[in-house]
Structures are given as structure tokens and as C-alpha cells.
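INFO  loader      accepted 1 record
INFO  loader      residues=311
INFO  predictor   begin
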Amino acid sequence: MLDSSNCTTAPPQAASDAGVAGAGVLLSFIVTAGLALLLSAWIITLEIRRSSASTIARKLLNSFSDQQILTGILIQSVGLAKMDTMVPYHFFIIWMLSSISTATHSAALLALLNDFKRDWVLRWLRQALMLVNLVLSCVSGIFILQQVTKKVAPTLPIACVWHEPATEPRDDVPISIVGTVAVMVGQILVFAMAVFYLHTGTVKWLQSARAASFVILTAIAVGAAVRCFQVSQAFGSPEVPLSDAGEKDWSFGQLLPLFLLLLPLINSIEIFRGEVKVPSPMEDDQKPLFETEDGFDRNPFWNSQIPLKSR
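INFO  predictor   done
INFO  writer      dumping C-alpha cells
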């Protein structure tokens, strides 16, 4: 842990960190989130209208969703591992990116709800990853809340929020506290609702609830993305003085995340050309795969697994 003596004298400037707040990193998160939200909206709309959704669209959305939840967990792990050296400015951007990740993969879950319900492995794996993401986000939120209330000098490491001395708090502390707590509570509610949807059978109001939840998640993702643009050096005006403009520079490390977005598209082209066979999920959505009342695939650790119906 950080020695309290390192929190007594704040340096005049903080070093930039392109690996966290670089232009390519931010754009890769936000572009992926935008594409995933558009695909989710399209699939949910088609299901509400009882139309057939494209297999390619579902495959793309599943890839973008997996990418969002894994990169969200990874970047939060990096932030917590570097809390002895990372300044609150970078830590806050990580927290906003995790909010984008949470909203995006939760919205994708709403669109691919039937797919996850039919496979207990995918269902419980997704819940486990969402729980890890939630725990990391709540821990990061506690650090942000401490930083807001104590207002530690912006060039000191985020770990200094647990050490004295701290500077005088700002006048807008109550608003910042309310906003921080609201984000944390919102993420907990999103996780609870996602688990509820995954274990809920077919009910009349489910489609309306999915649509309303999707609108809320989209608003969260857009708000977090706007905030990232506002406070980042790459696209906005950071509140902390940085020693260089490294977060604006384009390098291999900044271009790589953007080029990785092409991988799901290449896979989709292969599916479109018939090189990779993926059965259409829509036919399965309209009839149960298993001899159960709700058509769910049962978890064999708690319920006996039911064999597939004969085709």
C-alpha cells in the first residue's frame, strides 16, 4: 500500500496515461458501445414486432457485448492495481468507461435474453462476469466518493484518499456525492434487474420492461460517454495539469483497439458467405427446446438437465 508520506507534497503536474485515457482507448470503448446499442435496439424492436432478427446481427452483438464486459473488467483491474500511482483524473475516466461497459453489455443481454436463457453455461458465465464487474465498479466508486468528500490534491495518487492531510472540500460536494452514489446504486439495480430477467419466464409485461430498461441503459451509456469526452485531455479539458499531451497522440497502442473492432465484422462476413454455419436462433425463440414449463435449460448442479426435444 501507499506510504502516507507520499501524500504530503503534491507535484505541480501529473503524468499523462495514454493506456487509460488515450484517444484510441476512449474511442474503442465508445464506438463499441454505440454499435452494440444500435444492434440491441434493432433486435429488441424486431422481437416486439414478432419479426425475424438476423443471425449476423445477433452474432455481432454477442461479440461486442463480450468485448465490453471483458475490457470493462480489465481496465478496472488495472486502475485498482495502479492506485498507488494513478491520479484521480485517470481513475475517474476508468470509472466512467466501466459505466459505459455495464450499460452496454446489460443492454445486449436484454436483446439476447432468449439466447442466454436456453444455455445454462452462457447464463451463469454471464452472471459471474457481471458480478465481478459490479464488485470492481463499487470498489472504484468508493474511491471516487472518498476523493469527492476529501478533495485530495488532483496530482496525488488516488490511494491518498485514505490518508491525511486532505484539502478543503469544494462547495459542490453535495451534488458530487449524490451523483456518485446514484451511479453506484444504478449499477447495482442494473445487475439485479439483469439477473431477474435471466430467471424470469414468459410474462406479458416482459417486452415493455425490456424496452423501458433499454432506454434507461442507453441514457446511462450516453451520459458516461459525454462525461469522458468532457474531462479527457484527448477530446476535452482535464481539470488536472498534465506534464505532456501524450493522450492526444496516435500510436500503435491507440490504433490497435480500434482495429480489433474489425474482427467481429470479419466473422460476420464468413457467416454471411456460409463459411461458418450458425443456426438461426429465432425459430428456437418461438418454441421451447426443453421439456419444462418455461422452456429453460436447467442448471445441472441444482436441477436435473432435461434432454433436448426431438427435432
